[in-house]
Structures are given as structure tokens and as C-alpha cells.
């Protein structure tokens, strides 16, 4: 294991990666109201079952409590946060101001995203910012951390210590660009990445082959995205309507083959566990990112059934 | 070219209020080519307004005129006398022409009859597509002639996001029409040109101060000024 002073941010997530253990991250969406207890409750559910939890940033372009405050709330409740940051709602000034603020709150993991387009959300008439894109966002954070420089080139006295994450969708097109795009993000400064929800395992494995061929799996920690399916309706919805999702028909049929309600939920969890075990065997996969959309209570059971407990304690 | 669409008649009527003498002014350049505000469209709108006034039993004097270009002072001189005869000018030019009229004939009330919407090109007859954001810092030389600023829904400068599927963007137009993924197009063209490496260049944050973020822009060509 690396010494603490070799670490970029010294976050729990970074240390678990450094320990060589198989990493587990989760995800929480902040509520669409000023009720902060919701996120605290979600954190309590996940405590001890994940190494860190993503806090989404107005996901699907719908207004929610901001990711910085919710990241702080989950950390107050004993779970380390991965604060998501998109380029859709803030320009480079607001993003840098927020990241300095987040650092003072003890937030160390940051996930850099372009952001879902405004047209998918509840304020489609808003002005999309897109001053930066995911790659320039990664580079800006890296320069803040490693060079103590703002994006404009000005110096700062105390840098934010950040463990910088990115996302990649192995199922988007052009497929031949996807591994190369990960390489571009690594060169910009990404330390870890989380994939889009994986349902098409053969295609994910093909993408990983390309990633390994480029050798970049040794330069970044890759977390494979898992979404437990709560029912056949959800599977069909994701298959048809969620941009960038690749849900093979046999997955939909497998869930639909069970009775609605508890039997379909049980099958969804079983499938998630099987997928985690299969993905853990793929060379270059350093862990899993479990995105249980509004189904956080399923996470502890899945993590346990996948044999991933107890979570490592690192110093 | 600059494209515009005529505003709905009800909106135009609301703008005009109880105006008694209205001149509808067309423009013979971009808005004429996109069939929204040329002399023909000005003539049609003037007659629609007269018919509507007759139906409503209102007194209205409404004629039309047209300028070769409403955005140039010398062409406005040619219609100045006619403009002087009316209380209100309803301009069918783009936003540039409307403002030129408003400035030239101030304080006369000049109202817009169209919504100016983009810098586009006619893809086929009666179909226009946006092609330029006038961002002041052209990257088409690196992107195989496809503008990511305006043709990528998120103005990405470093390649496609995760919402690109079968060459199409995850976003559709407000009319639910599909949009080609700009970075998908750029990639195919760069490959065909043998310039794939341009896809992997890390482009720094764009300098938006050269676009409208820097405030209203002014261009001066000193060498072209009269001596």
C-alpha cells in the first residue's frame, strides 16, 4: 500500500484502491425538496457497505439539493462522498468556487461529468452553461490540485486535495472511440472512473479488451457500473427510453419471467450479484459502482451476497 | 445566412395595439431567402392586418415597403420618405435590420414581426439547419468542417459524450426531430481525411470572451477606413 504522503487526496476511496482491495461505491440522489434528512437516512443505510457514495448533481437535469451540501451530509453520517459536478449548470468560476468550498468541508472525491442535457429535465427553458466539458473540467481540477493554479493561471495558496473521477459509457457510439476517450480523460488527469450501468456484459468485456490493449487499465482505477433492476417495468423503460443504456432482451425477459413485486425484485438483486461476480473477474476492473436508483435499501443485501463484506478499514 | 420566422398574427396584433398608421417593412436579403420577411411576405402581412382591422371595424392605414438590406444606412435612406408617413414600422428584417431601422428613424416606434433564430443554411427546400454560433474563435479547421459549438447539443470541444447512439444525439429538437451527433460526424470525416489524431488533441477551455460573453462585439478594419 502507498504511503499516505503519496496519496493525491488521502480519501478513503483512494486508500481502498491503494490497498488493492476490490472497491465498492454506491450512489444517492438528493431529494427534490429542502428535506436534508432524506440524504442522511440514505447514508445510514449504506454505512459500512460501500467505500464511498456518489452524490448526484441535479441528475437528469432535475433540480435537487445541491451535491456539495448532500456530500457534506453523508460524510457527517459516516459515509465518504464522491461529489458529482456537471458542466451544465455552472461556469468555470462557479465550479472552482464550489470545489474550493467542497475542499474546506472535507470533500475529497469529485466526479467530473458533462451532465445530462437540460431538455431531459424539469427546466428545459433554462440556459445550458457548458462553458467547460468533462475533459477540461478534469484538467482544471488537476491543475488546481497539482499546480496550485486556477484555470486562468492565477496561483492559489492552498490547493484543494482531490481524487478526480470521470465517467465513461462503453455502450455509446462510436464504439471504437470509447476506450480512446478514456485515455484522453486519463491524460487530462482522471484518477478513477465509473462506467454507465452495465447490462450487456459481452460488450463491456469487448470494451475492456480495448482498454487493456491501450494499457490504460494500469493508469486508472475502473469501477464497473451495476444497477439492480427492481422490476420488469424498469428494465423495459431503461431499454427503450434512457439515453446511452444497452439492456439486452434476455435481461428484460429474465426479470419479466418472475411474478411482479417481491419475486421480480429478488431476481433483480440475484442478477446484480451474478453480474458483480462476473465483472470482478475481468482484468482491469478494480471494483463496482452500484447505482440503486431510489432503491438504496437493496444495496447492503447485494454487497453481502456478492461476498464483498466487510469493507476494508484503511488508515 | 440569418434565418427568421414570422411571429404569429395574434402576437403582432398585440404589439401594434391601437396603432392607426402602420408600415410593414420587408428586407430583400436573408429573411427573403428564408421566405419569412421579404417584400412578398411584407405585402401578405400588410393585407392580413387590413383584413383583420376591417373585421374588427377598426380604422387602419397599412401599407408595405421593402429595403434591399435593412441593416445598411444607405438602403434605409431609400425608404426614409415612406417611413416618415407612418406612426409605426413593423419590420420583417432580422434583429440587425430591426435595430438599424429603430436607430435610423428614432424615436419612431419600430416593432419586430419576426423572431430571428439562427445562422443556418437551407439543407433542402424550405428546411434550414443551424450551422454557426458566431463564437468568434473558429475551430472548423480541426473538426473536419463540422461545428461542435453549435451542432453538439452540449457544445463539447473534446469528443462525443455518452449520449451518442447510431450516429445520433440523445437530444432531439424542440419539435422532436432527430439531430446528428456532431462528434460522430467529425470522427467519420477525420478518419476519411486521415487526420484521426485531431480527435485526441486535448482542447483547452474555449475562450468565450470572443463570443457574446465578452459583451457586445465591435469589428474595426482600420485598413478599410476612408483616408
CATH architecture descriptor name of the largest domain in chain B: 3-Layer(aba) Sandwich
Strand content of chain B: 15-25%
Parts with pLDDT < 50 across at least 5 consecutive residues of chain A: none
CATH class category name of chain A: Alpha Beta
Total beta-strand segments of chain A: 8
Number of domains of chain A: 1
Given the structure, what is the number of helices of chain A? 11
Describe this structure in words.
The complex is a heterodimer of chains A (315) and B (227). Chain A is an alpha/beta fold and 315 residues long. Chain A has a single domain, classed as Alpha-Beta Barrel (TIM Barrel). Chain A has helices at residues 12-19, 37-46, 67-76, 92-104, 134-147, 175-188, 201-214, 232-241, 249-256, 262-280, 298-305; strands spanning 23-28, 52-55, 81-86, 109-113, 163-168, 192-197, 221-226, 285-290. Chain A has an 8-stranded parallel barrel with strand order 1-2-3-4-5-6-7-8, surrounded by 6 helices. In chain A, helix 8 runs antiparallel to helix 9. The N and C termini of chain A lie close together (11 Å). Chain B is an alpha/beta fold and 227 residues long. Chain B contains 8 helices and 9 strands. In chain B, a hairpin with a 2-residue loop joins strand 6 (114-124) and strand 7 (127-132). In chain B, strands 3-2-4-5 form a 4-stranded parallel beta sheet, sandwiched between helices. Chain A binds chain B through residues 87-88, 92, 114-117, 119, 128, 130-136, 139-140, 151, 167-169, 172-174, 177, 180-181, 183-184, 187-188, 196, 243-244, and chain B through 153-167, 170-172, 174, 181, 184, 187-188, 199-200, 202-206, 208.
Amino acid at each position: 500500500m502507498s504511503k499516505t504522503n503519496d496519496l493525491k487526496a488521502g480519501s478513503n476511496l483512494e486508500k481502498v484502491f491503494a490497498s488493492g482491495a476490490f472497491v465498492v461505491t454506491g450512489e444517492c440522489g438528493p431529494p427534490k425538496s429542502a428535506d436534508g434528512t432524506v440524504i442522511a437516512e440514505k447514508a445510514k443505510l449504506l454505512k459500512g457497505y460501500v467505500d464511498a457514495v456518489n452524490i448526484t448533481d441535479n441528475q437528469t437535469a432535475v433540480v435537487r439539493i445541491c451535491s456539495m451540501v448532500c456530500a457534506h451530509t453523508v460524510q457527517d453520517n459516516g459515509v465518504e462522498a464522491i461529489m458529482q459536478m456537471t458542466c451544465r449548470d455552472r461556469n468555470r468560476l462557479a465550479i472552482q468556487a464550489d470545489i474550493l468550498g467542497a475542499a474546506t468541508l472535507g470533500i475529497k472525491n469529485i466526479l467530473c461529468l458533462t451532465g445530462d442535457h437540460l431538455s431531459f429535465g424539469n427546466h428545459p427553458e433554462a440556459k445550458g452553461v457548458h462553458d467547460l466539458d468533462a475533459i477540461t473540467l478534469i484538467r482544471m481540477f488537476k491543475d488546481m490540485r497539482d499546480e496550485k493554479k486556477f484555470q486562468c493561471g492565477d496561483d492559489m495558496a492552498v490547493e484543494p486535495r482531490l481524487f478526480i473521477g470521470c465517467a465513461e459509457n462503453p455502450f455509446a457510439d462510436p464504439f471504437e472511440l470509447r476506450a480512446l476517450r478514456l485515455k484522453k480523460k486519463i491524460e487530462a488527469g482522471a484518477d478513477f472512473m465509473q462506467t454507465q450501468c452495465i447490462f450487456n456484459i459481452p460488450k463491456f468485456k469487448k470494451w475492456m479488451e480495448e482498454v487493456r490493449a491501450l494499457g490504460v487499465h494500469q493508469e486508472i482505477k475502473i469501477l464497473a457500473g451495476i444497477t439492480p433492476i427492481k422490476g420488469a417495468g424498469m428494465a423495459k423503460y431503461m431499454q427503450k427510453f434512457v439515453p446511452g443504456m444497452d439492456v439486452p432482451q434476455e435481461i428484460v425477459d429474465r426479470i419479466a419471467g418472475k411474478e411482479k413485486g417481491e419475486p421480480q425484485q429478488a431476481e433483480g438483486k440475484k442478477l446484480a450479484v451474478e453480474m458483480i461476480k462476473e465483472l470482478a473477474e475481468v482484468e482491469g476492473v478494480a471494483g463496482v459502482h452500484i447505482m440503486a436508483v431510489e432503491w438504496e435499501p437493496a444495496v447492503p443485501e447485494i454487497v453481502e451476497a456478492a461476498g464483498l463484506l466487510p469493507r476494508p478499514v484503511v488508515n | 445566412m440569418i434565418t427568421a420566422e414570422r411571429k404569429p398574427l395574434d402576437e403582432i396584433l398585440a404589439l401594434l395595439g391601437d396603432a392607426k398608421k402602420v408600415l410593414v417593412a420587408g428586407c430583400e436579403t436573408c429573411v427573403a431567402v428564408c421566405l419569412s420577411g421579404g417584400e412578398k411576405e411584407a405585402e401578405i402581412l400588410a393585407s392580413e392586418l387590413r383584413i383583420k382591422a376591417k373585421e374588427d371595424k377598426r380604422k387602419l392605414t397599412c401599407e408595405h415597403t421593402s429595403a434591399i438590406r435593412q441593416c445598411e444606412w444607405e438602403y434605409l435612406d431609400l425608404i426614409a420618405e415612406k417611413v416618415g408617413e407612418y406612426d409605426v414600422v413593423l419590420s420583417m428584417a432580422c434583429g440587425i435590420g430591426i435595430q438599424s431601422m429603430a436607430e435610423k428613424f428614432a424615436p419612431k416606434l419600430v416593432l419586430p414581426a419576426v423572431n430571428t433564430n439562427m445562422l443556418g443554411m437551407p439543407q433542402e427546400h424550405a428546411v434550414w439547419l443551424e450551422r454557426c454560433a458566431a463564437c468568434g474563435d473558429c475551430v472548423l479547421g480541426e473538426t473536419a468542417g463540422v461545428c461542435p459549438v453549435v451542432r453538439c447539443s452540449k457544445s463539447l470541444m473534446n469528443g462525443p459524450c455518452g449520449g451518442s447512439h447510431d450516429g445520433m444525439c440523445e437530444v432531439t429538437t424542440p419539435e422532436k426531430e432527430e439531430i446528428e451527433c456532431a462528434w460522430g460526424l467529425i470522427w467519420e470525416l477525420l478518419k476519411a481525411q486521415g487526420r484521426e489524431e485531431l480527435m485526441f488533441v486535448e482542447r483547452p477551455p474555449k475562450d468565450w470572451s470572443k463570443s457574446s460573453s465578452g459583451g457586445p462585439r465591435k469589428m474595426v478594419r482600420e485598413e478599410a477606413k476612408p483616408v
